[in-house]
Amino acid sequence: MSSSDPPDDGDDAFHPLGETAEAEFEKMLEETEYDAELGMEMAKDAMRVTKGELSDEEFYDRYHEEVLEEFGEDSRPMAAEIEAAREADDDSSTLLSRLGFDEDSRRGMMKKMGAGAGAVGFGAWTVSESGDNPERAVAAQDDEDEDDEAAADADNDGDGDDVQWGMALDLEVCDGCLSCVVACNAEHNWNEGANWMYILAYDDGTVESPEPDDFDSTRDFNYLIRPCQHCTDAPCEKVCPTTARHTRDEGGLVLTDYDVCIGCRYCQVACPYGVNYFQWDDPTEEAEEMDEEMMFDERDRWVSGAGPRGVMEKCIFDPARQDGQMGEDMVGTTACEDACPPGAIQFGDMNDPDSDPQQYVDNVPLARALENDPDEEDDEELVEAIEILAGEQEPADEDDEDADTLTEAEATRLVEGEYGSPDSTFRLLEEYDTNPNVIYIGNEPGPNAEQVPGPVSYADVGQVDDRQDVLEEGTVDPSWVADQLGL
Predict the structure, then answer these.
(1) Which of 35, 159, 189, 245 is the most buried (most CB within 10 A)?
(2) How many CA atoms lie within 13 A of 429 on its CB side?
(3) DSSP label at 330?
């Protein structure tokens, strides 16, 4: 590491998965051809960036030379923006010199304009090197501004769509059936144990789960559903030296371009949630036979399905669906959501208050009721209550003692009594400020949470709980592994 790096502050583990996980991460990086110490330090500082303890620019500068030396490029997402801003500032300063300002005046003018002045078009002022009259340059700017605005409008047509795909996950409704895991694997064909969708039962010292062979209901278990969180401010993206790990403008999906990924695994360390998997082996035969429309998104980047050997993979929120390549009726859906029997997974646009996840969070008891769709023959009054809360039927006036329908308050009490009202909603590891686009409903696992066997084992549904178990059984070509480790 460079001498400009801050000294070790002696704190405990920087990673939320703890010191043991950090030791495993470091060992993992040491087995690659890339700088393990650099990867660990970048991961630590990437999390400091999301917490607001370090700016993007400071992070970029701190590691720029080392990234260039190690990888031959520095294509981290903040690089282009930072370099462009600096170039714009330089252009602004040069322009003021041409207009006749001395150094002190130039600094004063730049200060008045603000640090971001270069970003609003100063570089477009057309003062030529041959010494054109500044007044002519300023007069020409009005015409150019109109052209720039038209160009910007055209550019924006191809930029992000203001959609942010995400999920609401109801932990109190999940029954641990693992249907979502099976469905995700069936659609994307990831290798055994590389669980893009993962369900775990847990104890944390405050809430406990029953023994897996002694329970009254699968709902007695405490669950955590763990897809990728598709963070708005993703630390995994910040450490990627290429453009492989990136946030797509369309839908805000955090994806990996398999054609660009070099398998350095820095993203795996920088992710607070533990959702990244290295592709140790060749894709399954089924994955190799996937249609191109399932592999390439609308930008023709290979971001979906199982990747080739030597790249990083994770949950992707199904770009093939969101881009309409599986049909317009599949937009706004995921395989895991479709497969969930109790409706614990709600996928949709987190920026749309009318989307499934936002409507679910807005009124959880009603959302649960609508998912269950009770039969009127079984409980006519409950059906009436649901219809009132859903706006399909007018409630009785609170002052009308002779009304033969329920009031809104009565309907609310009835639905909440039947379907429960959750104690809390939360986002995982909110203190890391990654702005995850997954909202949880129910109990948040405590700091001492430990995974325990659930009511349905991964083996019961033809899956594997831990990718490492598969690797240790020798399913990976040993000669390839030896080559990767330089043996």
Answers:
(1) 245
(2) 23
(3) G
Other residues' Cβ atoms within 10 Å of the Cβ of residue 438 = 22
Q: Tell me the three state secondary structure of residue 246.
A: strand
Tens of pLDDT, residue by residue over 408-420, are: 999 999 999 999 9
Q: Which two tokens stand for residue 81?
A: 């923006």
Q: Is 371:342 a contact under the CB 8 Å cutoff?
A: yes
> Whole-angstrom Cα distance, residue 198 to residue 193?
10
Q: 165-472: which CATH architecture?
A: 2-Layer Sandwich (3.30)
Concatenated DSSP letters for 223-243? EEEE-----TT-HHHHT-SSS
Going from N- to C-terminal start, the domains of the chain cover: 80-156, 165-472
Q: Contact 307/261 with Cβ under 8 angstroms?
A: yes
How sure is the predictor about 100, in pLDDT bands with cuts at 50, 70 and 90?
low
* Helical residues (DSSP H) of 99-133, grouped into ranges: 103-113
* H helix runs in 12-76, sequence order: 19-30, 36-51, 56-71
Output the pTM of the full model: 0.80
Helix residue ranges, H only, 292-334: 292-295, 319-322
Please name the residues in contact with 418: beta carbons below 8 A apart, sequence gap of 6 or more: 365, 369, 382
280-297 burial by CB neighbour count: b if 16+ within 10 A, else e? bbbbeeebeebeeebbbb
Identify the residue whose tokens are 């191809």.
158
Q: Which residue has the tokens 């479709």?
A: 338
Q: How many CB atoms lie within 10 A of CB 8?
A: 7
pLDDT classification of 401: cutoffs 50, 70, 90: confident
Helix, strand, coil content of the chain in percent (nearest 5): 40, 10, 50
Closest CA to 470 of 294, 280, 300: 280
Whether the predicted pLDDT of 144 surpasses 80: no
| Mean pLDDT calculated for residue range 172-176 | 96
Instruction: Give me the half-sphere count of Cα atoms (radius 13 Å) on the Cβ side of residue 95.
Output: 21
CA 142 to chain centre: 42
Structural contact between residues 224 and 445, judged by C-beta atoms closer than 8 angstroms:
yes
Strands 438-441 and 450-452 turn out to be: unpaired
Residue 116 Cα distances to 65, 85, 86, 109, 119, angstroms: 25, 7, 9, 12, 6
